TrEMBL record:
Organism name: Euplotes crassus
Domain of life: Eukaryota
GO biological process: import into nucleus
NAD(P)-binding domain boundaries: 15-87
PANTHER family: OXIDOREDUCTASE HTATIP2
Gene3D superfamilies according to UniProt: NAD(P)-binding Rossmann-like Domain
Protein's name in the database: NAD(P)-binding domain-containing protein
Gene Ontology CC annotations of this record: cytoplasm
Organism lineage string: Eukaryota, Sar, Alveolata, Ciliophora, Intramacronucleata
Length: 108
């Protein structure tokens, strides 16, 4: 798998447990230039246990994402793969699709 740059980097991912996020993490794990991946998840990610370059930061509530900001220090690339469906209700939809990505961007 080749990405546009030949430089090494570290990556931060939120939304890594969804379909898009899982695929992104798979690609990052295969990319030799990606030295470390930091992702936030509510639960452990058993599919990737033992992956040395993947650090899973467990967080029950993403409302407190700023508390994990130190975990993202040194990351050069940031990926937001969060998303939900409108049918979950407007309040939750806005929180997941707007508020959390904005808070993640502030950390970046």
């Amino acid at each position: 798998f080749q990405m546009e740059s030949e430089k090494t980097y570290t990556a931060a991912v939120i939304g890594g447990t969804g379909a898009i996020g899982k695929r992104l993490i798979e690609l990052l794990l295969k990319d030799d230039r990606c030295q470390k991946i930091v992702t936030v998840a509510r639960n452990p990610l058993p599919d990737w246990e033992g992956q040395e370059k993947l650090k899973v930061v467990q967080m029950d509530n993403m409302d407190n994402m700023a508390e994990a900001s130190e975990e993202f220090e040194g990351c050069q690339k940031f990926y937001c793969c969060l998303g939900t469906r409108v049918k979950v209700g407007k309040e939750l939809f806005v929180k997941v699709d707007k508020t959390y990505p904005i808070e993640f961007a502030k950390i970046c």
